[in-house]
Amino acid sequence: MAASVVDTTLDVEAARAHFPALKDGYIFADNAGGSQCLKGVVDRISDYLLHTNVQLGAGYTVSVSSTARVNEGATATAELLNALSPDEIVFASSSTAAVNNLAAAVAADILDGEEIIVTGEHEANAGPWKRLAAQRRLPLKVWEHTPSPSQPNEPYAIELALATLLPLITAKTRLVAFTACSNLLGTVVDVAAVIRAVRAEAERHGARKLEVCVDCVAYAPHRRIDVQAWDVDYCFFSYYKVYGPHISVLYARSRALAGLPSLAHHFLRVGAQAYKVSPGGTGYELAYASAGVLPYLRALSPAGAVDDAFARIATHEHVLLRTLLAYLSGADARARGVRIVGDSEAGPRRAPTVSFVVVGERAVRSSDIVAYFDKKGKMGIRYGHFYAYGLVDSLRPKIDLEDAIVRISLVHYNTVAEVDTLVDVLKDALDALQ
Protein backbone atom coordinates (compact mmCIF):
# COMPACT_ATOMS: atom_id res chain seq x y z
CA MET A 1 0.00 0.00 0.00
CA ALA A 2 1.38 3.42 -0.95
CA ALA A 3 2.12 5.83 1.85
CA SER A 4 -0.36 8.67 2.13
CA VAL A 5 0.88 12.16 1.26
CA VAL A 6 0.53 14.67 4.08
CA ASP A 7 -0.88 17.99 2.91
CA THR A 8 1.17 20.83 4.40
CA THR A 9 -0.25 23.60 2.20
CA LEU A 10 -0.50 27.02 3.84
CA ASP A 11 -3.50 29.27 3.18
CA VAL A 12 -1.38 32.37 2.64
CA GLU A 13 -4.25 34.76 1.98
CA ALA A 14 -5.99 33.70 5.18
CA ALA A 15 -2.74 34.27 7.06
CA ARG A 16 -2.20 37.70 5.49
CA ALA A 17 -5.65 38.82 6.60
CA HIS A 18 -4.38 38.93 10.19
CA PHE A 19 -1.80 41.62 9.35
CA PRO A 20 -3.26 45.08 8.65
CA ALA A 21 0.14 46.35 7.46
CA LEU A 22 -0.03 44.04 4.43
CA LYS A 23 -3.26 45.47 3.05
CA ASP A 24 -1.80 48.42 1.13
CA GLY A 25 0.51 46.30 -1.01
CA TYR A 26 3.81 47.18 0.64
CA ILE A 27 6.35 44.33 0.29
CA PHE A 28 8.03 43.73 3.63
CA ALA A 29 11.29 41.90 2.93
CA ASP A 30 13.29 42.87 6.03
CA ASN A 31 11.46 40.43 8.29
CA ALA A 32 14.61 39.14 9.97
CA GLY A 33 14.90 42.64 11.42
CA GLY A 34 11.31 42.55 12.61
CA SER A 35 8.09 41.01 11.32
CA GLN A 36 4.74 42.70 11.00
CA CYS A 37 2.44 42.53 14.00
CA LEU A 38 -0.80 40.60 14.25
CA LYS A 39 -3.99 42.61 14.73
CA GLY A 40 -4.92 40.32 17.59
CA VAL A 41 -1.69 41.24 19.34
CA VAL A 42 -2.27 44.97 18.87
CA ASP A 43 -5.81 44.58 20.21
CA ARG A 44 -4.44 42.96 23.36
CA ILE A 45 -1.98 45.81 23.93
CA SER A 46 -4.77 48.34 23.63
CA ASP A 47 -7.15 46.39 25.85
CA TYR A 48 -4.55 45.93 28.58
CA LEU A 49 -3.62 49.61 28.69
CA LEU A 50 -7.23 50.76 28.60
CA HIS A 51 -8.62 48.36 31.20
CA THR A 52 -5.91 46.74 33.36
CA ASN A 53 -2.99 49.16 33.38
CA VAL A 54 -2.03 48.81 37.06
CA GLN A 55 0.87 47.31 39.00
CA LEU A 56 0.87 43.54 39.46
CA GLY A 57 0.55 41.60 42.68
CA ALA A 58 -1.98 43.68 44.63
CA GLY A 59 -5.17 42.27 46.12
CA TYR A 60 -7.69 44.52 44.42
CA THR A 61 -9.70 43.27 41.46
CA VAL A 62 -8.02 45.14 38.61
CA SER A 63 -4.53 44.16 39.81
CA VAL A 64 -5.57 40.53 40.11
CA SER A 65 -6.82 40.69 36.52
CA SER A 66 -3.64 42.43 35.36
CA THR A 67 -1.47 39.77 37.02
CA ALA A 68 -3.49 37.00 35.41
CA ARG A 69 -3.08 38.61 32.00
CA VAL A 70 0.71 38.85 32.27
CA ASN A 71 0.80 35.23 33.44
CA GLU A 72 -1.25 34.33 30.37
CA GLY A 73 1.65 35.52 28.23
CA ALA A 74 4.08 33.26 30.08
CA THR A 75 1.68 30.30 29.89
CA ALA A 76 1.16 30.69 26.14
CA THR A 77 4.90 31.06 25.56
CA ALA A 78 5.62 27.93 27.60
CA GLU A 79 3.18 26.02 25.41
CA LEU A 80 4.71 27.47 22.25
CA LEU A 81 8.17 26.27 23.33
CA ASN A 82 6.94 23.01 24.87
CA ALA A 83 8.39 24.09 28.23
CA LEU A 84 7.38 22.24 31.38
CA SER A 85 6.16 25.33 33.20
CA PRO A 86 5.47 29.06 32.75
CA ASP A 87 8.00 29.51 35.58
CA GLU A 88 10.68 28.75 32.97
CA ILE A 89 9.71 31.80 30.88
CA VAL A 90 11.45 35.14 31.42
CA PHE A 91 10.38 38.29 29.57
CA ALA A 92 12.97 40.93 28.71
CA SER A 93 13.13 44.16 26.74
CA SER A 94 15.40 42.59 24.11
CA SER A 95 17.33 39.40 23.45
CA THR A 96 20.57 41.18 24.26
CA ALA A 97 19.17 42.26 27.63
CA ALA A 98 17.94 38.73 28.35
CA VAL A 99 21.35 37.16 27.68
CA ASN A 100 23.18 39.90 29.58
CA ASN A 101 21.03 39.11 32.61
CA LEU A 102 21.57 35.39 32.16
CA ALA A 103 25.34 35.79 31.88
CA ALA A 104 25.39 37.89 35.06
CA ALA A 105 23.58 35.12 36.93
CA VAL A 106 25.56 32.21 35.45
CA ALA A 107 28.87 33.96 36.23
CA ALA A 108 28.60 33.03 39.91
CA ASP A 109 28.61 29.33 39.03
CA ILE A 110 31.60 29.34 36.67
CA LEU A 111 34.94 28.36 38.16
CA ASP A 112 38.21 30.02 37.26
CA GLY A 113 39.73 28.33 34.23
CA GLU A 114 36.46 26.91 32.90
CA GLU A 115 35.80 27.55 29.21
CA ILE A 116 33.06 29.17 27.17
CA ILE A 117 32.38 28.34 23.52
CA VAL A 118 30.41 30.70 21.26
CA THR A 119 29.50 30.99 17.61
CA GLY A 120 31.05 34.07 16.07
CA GLU A 121 27.99 35.72 14.63
CA HIS A 122 24.90 37.18 16.31
CA GLU A 123 26.22 39.45 19.04
CA ALA A 124 23.05 39.19 21.13
CA ASN A 125 24.26 35.73 22.09
CA ALA A 126 28.01 35.95 21.66
CA GLY A 127 28.56 39.42 23.14
CA PRO A 128 27.47 38.81 26.75
CA TRP A 129 29.52 35.60 26.98
CA LYS A 130 32.55 37.30 25.44
CA ARG A 131 32.33 40.06 28.03
CA LEU A 132 31.95 37.56 30.84
CA ALA A 133 35.01 35.65 29.63
CA ALA A 134 37.04 38.87 29.45
CA GLN A 135 35.94 40.02 32.91
CA ARG A 136 36.73 36.67 34.52
CA ARG A 137 39.73 35.95 32.29
CA LEU A 138 38.13 32.70 31.21
CA PRO A 139 39.26 30.88 28.08
CA LEU A 140 36.93 31.74 25.19
CA LYS A 141 36.69 29.54 22.11
CA VAL A 142 34.82 30.26 18.89
CA TRP A 143 32.95 27.67 16.85
CA GLU A 144 34.02 29.07 13.49
CA HIS A 145 32.24 28.77 10.17
CA THR A 146 34.03 26.68 7.58
CA PRO A 147 33.67 26.38 3.79
CA SER A 148 30.67 24.35 2.66
CA PRO A 149 31.89 21.02 1.25
CA SER A 150 29.05 21.04 -1.29
CA GLN A 151 30.22 24.39 -2.72
CA PRO A 152 34.01 24.39 -2.36
CA ASN A 153 34.62 27.06 -5.01
CA GLU A 154 32.25 29.64 -3.51
CA PRO A 155 34.13 31.97 -1.12
CA TYR A 156 30.94 32.98 0.70
CA ALA A 157 29.42 29.50 1.02
CA ILE A 158 30.12 28.72 4.67
CA GLU A 159 28.51 26.70 7.44
CA LEU A 160 28.80 25.56 11.04
CA ALA A 161 30.10 21.99 10.97
CA LEU A 162 29.74 19.77 14.02
CA ALA A 163 33.11 18.26 13.22
CA THR A 164 34.78 21.59 14.04
CA LEU A 165 32.86 22.06 17.29
CA LEU A 166 33.56 18.77 19.03
CA PRO A 167 37.38 19.20 19.20
CA LEU A 168 36.76 22.39 21.20
CA ILE A 169 35.09 20.45 24.04
CA THR A 170 37.34 19.62 26.98
CA ALA A 171 37.02 18.74 30.66
CA LYS A 172 36.95 22.50 31.32
CA THR A 173 34.01 23.31 29.04
CA ARG A 174 31.30 25.03 31.08
CA LEU A 175 28.98 26.62 28.51
CA VAL A 176 28.32 26.35 24.78
CA ALA A 177 26.34 29.19 23.18
CA PHE A 178 25.40 28.77 19.54
CA THR A 179 22.94 30.05 16.95
CA ALA A 180 20.06 27.86 15.78
CA CYS A 181 19.64 29.80 12.55
CA SER A 182 21.90 32.42 11.08
CA ASN A 183 20.24 35.79 10.50
CA LEU A 184 22.88 36.38 7.83
CA LEU A 185 23.27 33.02 6.09
CA GLY A 186 19.80 31.59 6.68
CA THR A 187 21.37 28.25 7.64
CA VAL A 188 19.32 26.15 10.09
CA VAL A 189 21.30 24.06 12.57
CA ASP A 190 20.10 20.65 13.77
CA VAL A 191 19.91 21.88 17.37
CA ALA A 192 19.00 18.57 19.00
CA ALA A 193 21.83 16.75 17.24
CA VAL A 194 24.38 19.39 18.22
CA ILE A 195 23.31 19.35 21.87
CA ARG A 196 23.39 15.54 22.03
CA ALA A 197 26.89 15.47 20.57
CA VAL A 198 28.16 18.26 22.81
CA ARG A 199 26.79 16.63 25.97
CA ALA A 200 28.27 13.27 25.02
CA GLU A 201 31.67 14.80 24.32
CA ALA A 202 31.65 16.78 27.57
CA GLU A 203 30.72 13.66 29.51
CA ARG A 204 33.50 11.72 27.81
CA HIS A 205 35.98 14.35 28.96
CA GLY A 206 34.53 14.46 32.47
CA ALA A 207 33.41 18.11 32.39
CA ARG A 208 32.17 19.33 35.79
CA LYS A 209 29.03 20.96 34.45
CA LEU A 210 27.97 21.71 30.91
CA GLU A 211 25.15 24.05 29.94
CA VAL A 212 23.92 25.08 26.51
CA CYS A 213 22.40 28.41 25.44
CA VAL A 214 20.78 28.55 21.99
CA ASP A 215 20.04 31.75 20.08
CA CYS A 216 16.65 31.22 18.40
CA VAL A 217 16.05 34.81 17.25
CA ALA A 218 16.32 33.96 13.53
CA TYR A 219 14.93 30.45 14.03
CA ALA A 220 11.63 31.12 15.81
CA PRO A 221 9.72 32.65 12.85
CA HIS A 222 10.42 29.60 10.68
CA ARG A 223 10.62 26.47 12.85
CA ARG A 224 9.10 25.14 16.09
CA ILE A 225 11.25 25.51 19.18
CA ASP A 226 10.90 22.39 21.34
CA VAL A 227 13.00 22.85 24.46
CA GLN A 228 12.26 19.38 25.82
CA ALA A 229 13.13 17.58 22.60
CA TRP A 230 16.30 19.66 22.34
CA ASP A 231 17.34 19.05 25.98
CA VAL A 232 18.47 22.68 26.15
CA ASP A 233 19.26 24.66 29.30
CA TYR A 234 18.63 28.15 27.94
CA CYS A 235 17.30 29.60 24.71
CA PHE A 236 15.83 32.90 23.66
CA PHE A 237 13.97 34.69 20.88
CA SER A 238 12.29 38.02 20.14
CA TYR A 239 8.51 38.13 19.78
CA TYR A 240 8.75 41.16 17.51
CA LYS A 241 10.30 38.87 14.90
CA VAL A 242 7.54 36.30 15.41
CA TYR A 243 4.49 38.49 14.62
CA GLY A 244 4.22 39.84 18.16
CA PRO A 245 5.11 42.90 20.27
CA HIS A 246 8.56 44.32 20.93
CA ILE A 247 9.46 42.01 23.79
CA SER A 248 11.86 39.09 24.08
CA VAL A 249 11.78 35.75 25.85
CA LEU A 250 14.42 33.76 27.68
CA TYR A 251 13.63 30.12 28.40
CA ALA A 252 15.55 28.82 31.41
CA ARG A 253 15.16 25.20 32.43
CA SER A 254 13.86 24.77 35.99
CA ARG A 255 16.84 22.81 37.22
CA ALA A 256 19.20 25.36 35.68
CA LEU A 257 17.32 28.22 37.37
CA ALA A 258 17.51 26.43 40.71
CA GLY A 259 21.29 26.76 40.76
CA LEU A 260 21.42 30.46 39.85
CA PRO A 261 21.64 33.38 42.27
CA SER A 262 18.83 35.92 42.11
CA LEU A 263 19.28 39.23 40.29
CA ALA A 264 16.06 40.53 41.85
CA HIS A 265 15.78 42.70 44.95
CA HIS A 266 17.21 40.95 48.01
CA PHE A 267 13.92 41.02 49.96
CA LEU A 268 11.87 39.26 47.27
CA ARG A 269 11.15 35.56 47.76
CA VAL A 270 11.69 34.26 44.26
CA GLY A 271 12.73 30.67 44.91
CA ALA A 272 13.34 28.91 41.60
CA GLN A 273 11.04 31.28 39.69
CA ALA A 274 12.11 32.87 36.44
CA TYR A 275 12.16 36.29 38.14
CA LYS A 276 15.59 35.27 39.43
CA VAL A 277 17.10 36.39 36.12
CA SER A 278 14.77 39.34 35.60
CA PRO A 279 15.84 42.32 37.73
CA GLY A 280 12.52 44.12 37.12
CA GLY A 281 9.19 43.90 35.34
CA THR A 282 9.16 44.25 31.56
CA GLY A 283 6.32 45.66 29.47
CA TYR A 284 3.24 44.15 31.10
CA GLU A 285 1.03 45.03 28.15
CA LEU A 286 3.57 43.42 25.82
CA ALA A 287 3.82 40.26 27.91
CA TYR A 288 0.04 39.93 27.82
CA ALA A 289 -0.09 40.71 24.09
CA SER A 290 2.46 37.99 23.32
CA ALA A 291 -0.24 35.45 24.17
CA GLY A 292 -1.92 36.43 20.89
CA VAL A 293 0.74 34.74 18.76
CA LEU A 294 -0.05 31.14 19.78
CA PRO A 295 -3.73 31.16 18.72
CA TYR A 296 -2.73 32.66 15.38
CA LEU A 297 -0.24 29.85 14.78
CA ARG A 298 -2.85 27.29 15.76
CA ALA A 299 -5.25 28.85 13.25
CA LEU A 300 -2.77 28.14 10.44
CA SER A 301 -3.34 24.42 11.02
CA PRO A 302 -6.71 22.77 10.27
CA ALA A 303 -6.02 20.57 13.29
CA GLY A 304 -5.03 23.50 15.48
CA ALA A 305 -1.58 21.95 16.02
CA VAL A 306 1.52 24.11 16.40
CA ASP A 307 3.85 21.54 14.83
CA ASP A 308 1.56 21.27 11.81
CA ALA A 309 1.43 25.07 11.53
CA PHE A 310 5.21 25.27 11.36
CA ALA A 311 5.28 22.44 8.80
CA ARG A 312 2.96 24.53 6.62
CA ILE A 313 5.08 27.62 7.18
CA ALA A 314 8.21 25.69 6.14
CA THR A 315 6.52 24.33 3.01
CA HIS A 316 5.46 27.76 1.81
CA GLU A 317 8.74 29.41 2.73
CA HIS A 318 10.60 26.74 0.76
CA VAL A 319 8.73 27.87 -2.37
CA LEU A 320 9.63 31.51 -1.68
CA LEU A 321 13.26 30.59 -1.08
CA ARG A 322 13.49 28.44 -4.20
CA THR A 323 12.03 31.27 -6.30
CA LEU A 324 14.50 33.84 -4.97
CA LEU A 325 17.55 31.60 -5.14
CA ALA A 326 16.70 30.53 -8.69
CA TYR A 327 17.61 34.01 -9.89
CA LEU A 328 20.40 34.88 -7.45
CA SER A 329 22.30 31.66 -8.21
CA GLY A 330 21.49 31.67 -11.92
CA ALA A 331 23.68 32.55 -14.89
CA ASP A 332 22.39 36.11 -15.35
CA ALA A 333 23.00 37.12 -11.73
CA ARG A 334 26.40 35.47 -11.58
CA ALA A 335 27.48 37.22 -14.79
CA ARG A 336 26.57 40.50 -13.10
CA GLY A 337 28.79 39.66 -10.11
CA VAL A 338 26.05 38.57 -7.69
CA ARG A 339 27.35 36.16 -5.06
CA ILE A 340 25.13 34.62 -2.39
CA VAL A 341 26.52 34.78 1.13
CA GLY A 342 25.65 31.33 2.42
CA ASP A 343 24.21 28.22 0.81
CA SER A 344 22.66 28.68 -2.63
CA GLU A 345 20.60 25.49 -2.30
CA ALA A 346 16.98 25.72 -1.13
CA GLY A 347 17.21 22.70 1.15
CA PRO A 348 15.37 21.83 4.37
CA ARG A 349 18.18 23.33 6.47
CA ARG A 350 17.66 26.77 4.94
CA ALA A 351 15.39 29.61 6.05
CA PRO A 352 14.21 32.22 3.52
CA THR A 353 16.80 34.73 4.70
CA VAL A 354 19.07 35.39 1.74
CA SER A 355 22.15 37.61 1.72
CA PHE A 356 24.28 38.59 -1.25
CA VAL A 357 26.96 40.95 -2.53
CA VAL A 358 27.81 42.21 -6.01
CA VAL A 359 31.56 41.92 -6.54
CA GLY A 360 34.23 41.87 -9.22
CA GLU A 361 34.48 44.18 -12.23
CA ARG A 362 30.75 44.95 -12.01
CA ALA A 363 30.74 45.53 -8.25
CA VAL A 364 27.91 47.58 -6.77
CA ARG A 365 27.69 48.95 -3.25
CA SER A 366 25.10 47.20 -1.10
CA SER A 367 23.80 50.56 0.11
CA ASP A 368 23.13 51.66 -3.47
CA ILE A 369 21.08 48.55 -4.19
CA VAL A 370 18.90 49.07 -1.13
CA ALA A 371 18.47 52.76 -1.98
CA TYR A 372 17.28 51.78 -5.46
CA PHE A 373 14.63 49.48 -3.98
CA ASP A 374 13.46 52.27 -1.68
CA LYS A 375 13.27 54.71 -4.59
CA LYS A 376 10.96 52.29 -6.38
CA GLY A 377 8.64 52.57 -3.36
CA LYS A 378 6.37 50.16 -1.47
CA MET A 379 9.09 47.64 -0.68
CA GLY A 380 11.81 47.32 1.91
CA ILE A 381 15.04 45.33 2.03
CA ARG A 382 18.17 46.06 4.04
CA TYR A 383 21.96 46.13 3.98
CA GLY A 384 24.58 45.91 6.74
CA HIS A 385 26.19 43.33 9.00
CA PHE A 386 23.00 42.65 10.99
CA TYR A 387 24.81 42.27 14.32
CA ALA A 388 26.82 39.42 12.79
CA TYR A 389 29.82 41.72 12.81
CA GLY A 390 32.42 39.05 13.51
CA LEU A 391 31.11 36.77 10.80
CA VAL A 392 31.05 39.50 8.14
CA ASP A 393 34.54 40.57 9.20
CA SER A 394 35.79 37.02 8.66
CA LEU A 395 34.54 36.67 5.09
CA ARG A 396 37.10 36.54 2.31
CA PRO A 397 37.54 38.29 -0.02
CA LYS A 398 37.15 41.06 2.52
CA ILE A 399 33.71 42.66 2.67
CA ASP A 400 33.44 46.33 3.60
CA LEU A 401 31.94 46.24 7.08
CA GLU A 402 30.27 49.61 6.67
CA ASP A 403 28.58 48.67 3.41
CA ALA A 404 28.49 44.91 4.11
CA ILE A 405 25.80 42.86 2.39
CA VAL A 406 22.26 43.04 1.01
CA ARG A 407 19.68 40.89 2.80
CA ILE A 408 16.22 39.87 1.64
CA SER A 409 14.44 38.12 4.49
CA LEU A 410 11.04 36.56 3.95
CA VAL A 411 8.42 34.90 6.14
CA HIS A 412 5.26 32.93 5.53
CA TYR A 413 3.03 35.93 4.79
CA ASN A 414 5.16 36.88 1.79
CA THR A 415 3.94 35.65 -1.59
CA VAL A 416 5.58 34.28 -4.71
CA ALA A 417 4.29 37.33 -6.60
CA GLU A 418 6.15 39.57 -4.14
CA VAL A 419 9.36 37.59 -4.66
CA ASP A 420 8.94 37.91 -8.44
CA THR A 421 8.63 41.68 -7.98
CA LEU A 422 11.75 41.82 -5.82
CA VAL A 423 13.71 39.89 -8.45
CA ASP A 424 12.50 42.21 -11.22
CA VAL A 425 13.51 45.28 -9.22
CA LEU A 426 16.92 43.77 -8.50
CA LYS A 427 17.47 43.23 -12.22
CA ASP A 428 16.51 46.86 -12.85
CA ALA A 429 18.84 47.99 -10.05
CA LEU A 430 21.78 46.13 -11.55
CA ASP A 431 21.01 47.57 -14.99
CA ALA A 432 20.93 51.07 -13.54
CA LEU A 433 23.94 50.79 -11.25
CA GLN A 434 26.43 48.79 -13.32
Automatic annotation (TrEMBL):
Domain of life: Eukaryota
InterPro entries: Aminotrans_V_dom, PyrdxlP-dep_Trfase, PyrdxlP-dep_Trfase_major, PyrdxlP-dep_Trfase_small
Aminotransferase class V domain mapped to chain residues: 27-422
UniProt-recorded name of the protein: Aminotransferase class V domain-containing protein
Organism: Phellinidium pouzarii
